[in-house]
Amino acid sequence: MAVVKKIICREELIKKKVITKNAILPNDKYVFLKGVVYTFHGTPLPDAAIDIVQINTNVNPIQIVEIGVTFAREDGSYGVPILWGKGYYYRITAYSPA
Q1: Alpha helices in the chain (DSSP H)
Q2: Could you report the per-residue pLDDT of 17-69, keeping only the tens digit for each?
Q3: Which of 39, 47, 52, 72 has the smallest CB count inside 10 Å?
């Protein structure tokens, strides 16, 4: 499996609210998953942390891999590239910043 890595230094994370990095994904097995995090009241939740875990049922025992964490933008939206294929599932958990 190919991996695209972009390194963002701590100083860059502190100075900028949104960081844009361009990457070319290695093949067409990836899709861009995007969504919006909402509060219980139905309003978008900015700055929420989104934890992404990949579950691969193609192997025995099932392989669970922590993909990483991303953060919602001011409008509650987020997006991440994920490997898409038979037997891959994802657990996505959002955490409120407050």
Answers
A1: 10-15
A2: 666 666 555 566 888 888 899 888 889 999 999 999 999 999 999 999 998 89
A3: 39
Query: CB of 21 within 8 A of CB of 51?
Result: no
Q: Would residue 15 be called left, alpha or beta, if left means φ above 0 and alpha means ψ between -120 and 50 degrees?
A: alpha
pLDDT given for residue 75 in this prediction: 93
Sheet of strand 63-71, all strands in order from the earlier edge strand to the far edge: 63-71, 49-56, 88-95
Contact assessment for residue 93 and residue 66, using Cβ atoms and an 8 Å cutoff: no
pTM: 0.67
Residues contacting residue 11 through CB under 8 Å, at least 6 positions apart: none
pLDDT value at 74 more than 70:
yes
